Fold each of these.
Amino acid sequence: MLSKRVVATLKKPNSDVCAECRLQIVDVSKKIEVSVLQILITYSVLLFVICFGFINDANGQINSSAKNNFQTPNIVFIIADDCTFRDIGCYGGQAFTPNIDRLSTEGMKFSNCFQAAPMCSPTRHNIYTGLYPVKSGAYPNHTRAYDHIKSIAHYLKPVGYRVVQTGKKHFNPAKVFPFEHFPKSKNKFPDITAIDNLFEECKSAKTPFCLFACSNSPHSPWTEGDASRYPPDDIKLPPYIVDTPILRKNFSNYLAEVTHFDSEVGSILASLKHHQLEENTLVMVVSEQGNSFPFAKWTCYDSGLQSAMVVRFPGHIEPGVMSDALVEYVDVCPTLVDLANAEEIDGLDGRSFLPVLLGDKINHKDFVFGIMTTRGIINGSEAYAIRSVRDKKYKLIKNLNFETKFTNACSKSVYFKSMVEKANLGDKDAKRLVNAYHYRPKIEFFDIQTDPLELNNLASDPAYQLEINRLSRELENWMSSQGDEGVVTEWKAHERQAPKRKSKKK
């Protein structure tokens, strides 16, 4: 249909009509051309976006088509044992860790990585299952998961991966963790020779692998490494540890084992390079819970729950980046599943932080949680339940059996006894720290940004009551979601330990 403007021009003289009609027709034609061009451009852009998967879903996850831009990646996960993250070189520590330090310049270093339980066994279950400790059943030490639980091996094997674990195990039962193990490897350290053979076999067969290399360093009694690098008189002790000659000697041996762990990391990285597998392998190195000196392992302070995490994936993770995203060990399993382009797993507590690794997101979680169970541990209090919640600024700890004396393997060690001896000789600072380790208030609250070592409890300050209430609600909601009944759950801990530990506490 002709426009009114064109119809009106028909009443004019013929010459004028013809001229103006031609102008109108040209004008309409141009508009049609522009509209068609706009439609084509819009369609092309939309098609490009869909094909290459650059749109994130509502949860910030990366579409599978985006992940398919790289080949099926290999995975190497390396974990220490009882290593306080602050003692690693690239985290400001005094331990000599050149391999981890270099890796941090080649990938992403996390400043807010946490696990949910500051003990070896629940930590390992936490990583492999993607579930928090109470929900998986693995919340005391020397524990086991419920029989119906599945782990990372169940999720990656169906998509073609060899899922291999070497070194320290500390998980049960075997059917929940159907890892491939090196047949002749019996000790608690990663078998470097067998790892090298694995890399060669997988490269030749073009088979992707997911390797968990689990060290026993720097777990006490600290017999590995060269302690001469750390003269006892020269080392720096954290302010929450009583300074004694015996403690300095033990801390020197501990630092030597941190360096030993770093050498294991270096050997595995060198093997990857030798087999030309670096470019298509994601490497993740973590430090586990804190060391076994006071106020670290067996506690819900950051020195117990916080972990180093360094991740390298050439061409996909920007090198030399520091992330302050809150991530947890419970997120490792779904992240590796996401990376492997395996089917998403329903029912996990953890969430993939692959979008953080790939630079598509800068945040991940609002809160991280902690649980400590003394029941059933070596020299542990009969029942001393601790729960915690933390965001990027504040930390809340609830000592549910606060009237009980807090004890564990640390409190029977020779170095702790040297602290007690110094306190008994009249040293006021030693007496204060020994007493603070054994006896805790019901509530502890810290401003992590101004007090990262958690030395100043603000729980009694009215100015922070709203924040304490806010975090208390988050902690209560989390415990409810896990089926965690606090003290009642603590008393049932023996039921969740390996059978040989159910009859007596060790």
Note: The CA atoms of residues 9 and 16 lie 8 Å apart.
Amino acid sequence: MGGDATMATFKCTSCGHEKEGRCKPQKCPECEGKKTFEKKE
């Protein structure tokens, strides 16, 4: 497990909500912020 290059963790810069996915989420499900996600390294 681990090291799967297709999945990334994105963190909302507004509320800190973290979401896993292949591409950057358009809208935060927690705070409704648009384009607030940044890729977490």
Note: Residues 3 and 11 are 18 Å apart (CA to CA).
Amino acid sequence: MAKPEKATLDYLYFHPITKIHEFKSLRFNHSELKEKLDTQKLNLYLSLYQSKALNKRTKLFLTCHNNTES
């Protein structure tokens, strides 16, 4: 089973969302993510992809995720 960090990156890789309102329209369980998502591990996995586009999407996702109330 995929770890939350890997599953999140896979989702972002296969769904090229580029606008913050697109993230807000998704039904992520942000309180669950805040509890389980390890951003250090996420960034480690992200570095393995070596993708500028995925880096941008992940930064946008984390901005949206961190600004969402639990």
Note: The chain is about 70% helix and 0% strand.
